[in-house]
Structure formats: structure tokens, C-alpha cells
Amino acid sequence: MPDLSWEMRLGGIVAGVDEVGRGPLAGPVVAAAVILDPANLPPELDGLDDSKALSADARARYLAVLRRIAVIGVGAASVAEIDRINILQASMLAMTRAVAHLGRRPDVALIDGNRAPKLACRAVTLVKGDAISLSIAAASVVAKETRDRAMALLDCRYPGYGWAQNAGYPTAAHRRALGAIGLTRHHRRSFGPVRALLGPSPDIAARDAAE
Predict the structure, then answer these.
(1) Out of 1, 85, 167, 210, which residue is the most buried by the measure of CB atoms under 10 Å away?
(2) d(Cα 123, Cα 105) in Å, to the nearest integer?
(3) Which N-terminal residues, if any, form the signal peptide (predicted)?
(4) Count of CB atoms within 10 A of residue 7's CB?
């Protein structure tokens, strides 16, 4: 289970940073930065893990606790930014924004993965960090819950794609909907399955104009 070993080893104020949403065909990429106080970890955080290992109900419970006891920053990069600068650079941008939105400058940002954005503080990468570092695990929960809830809201405005269930990922149902309904302005046109549908389509123009 993730713990604070890395945070204690690094010393000072450490923010765990993670992102979610690199793979979907629609929606933004979202990142979160979380600072935990080792002296203020309530029992309700017991079992906190990588968001992918938790149920939706568990993530919601942990998010409520984290909002109460942690310093949190959330950042995102839009679909337009993803299409313009590519998904990797957009993920870096989202993480930079998340750290900036903490409201305080950490001494170290502990980043999930093997690449770090340019930050005003020291950055340390940790491969599979969401399963190792409690701060990164917390950030993964915040990022995923934030993005999933945003996609559920978009699902109400753009029914038929199943975004409340698939969060924009390329499930079979989502791919079928692309062919049957067409694209929205929230689809990533630089991604292959979406790009394949691009062309002089009045349906696409109409849906974008209606937004």
C-alpha cells in the first residue's frame, strides 16, 4: 500500500502530483497536486490507494476526506490544447497548473511517472508512484474524481456517447456512437479514431455551433 516513505525521505513540504485522462477520445486531461500533513492523517484515509485500484464509491469517500484535511490544487488542459501541443505536453501543462493552484509553493513535487513538467520547485519523478506514495495516490483520486464528474456532466449535454460510464475512453459503445452520432467539440481531433471521422461533415459543424 502507498505510504509516506518517499515524502519523509525528501523532507520539507512535498506535493504528490498525478494526472488522468491521457487515453480518452474526448474531454480534458486533468491533474491534481496534494499536500498531506503526516501529523493529520485521519483513520478515514486508511486503505487509500491508486485510484485505478479503488471503486467509484471509495474514491468519492476519500475525496471528501482529502478536501477536508489536505492542500489540493487541480489543473487541466483543454481539448484544444491537447490537439495543439499533443497529449504528453498537455499532461505536463495540467500538472504545472495543478501545482500552481495549490496556493502555496511546495519544496518538492513528487510526480507519478518518469517525466516531470517545468515547475518553480524541485521535481522528483517516481514510476508507478500512485501505488507507492500516499500523496501521489491522493492526487490520483482527486484527479480521477474531478475528471469523471466533469465527463458525467458533459454526458447530460451530449447523450449517446456514454461518457458518464466510459469517461470518454474508446470503449466499443463510444466508438459506435462516433459513427452513429458524429463528433462534438469535446472530441480530440488529433486522436486517430476521431481524426478518421473528420471531413466536410455538416453534422460536426452543427454540433459545434450549437455549443
Answers:
(1) 167
(2) 12
(3) none
(4) 22
How far apart, in whole angstroms, are the C-alpha atoms of residue 129 and residue 108?
14
d(CA 82, CA 94): 10
Domain count, the chain: 2
Same domain for 89 and 149? Answer: yes
Residue 18 assigned as binding residue: yes
Helix axes 56-69, 134-157, angle to 10 degrees: 120
Range of the domain at 186: 161-210
pTM of the model: 0.92
Residues 33 and 127 reside in one and the same domain: yes
Same domain, 100 and 144: yes
Among candidate residues 155, 174, 190, the one where a domain is terminated: 155
Asked if residue 19 belongs to a known ligand binding site, the reply is yes
For residues 23 and 162, give the distance between their C-alpha atoms in angstroms, rounded to a whole number: 16
User: Hey, which residues does 152 pair with through a beta bridge?
Assistant: none
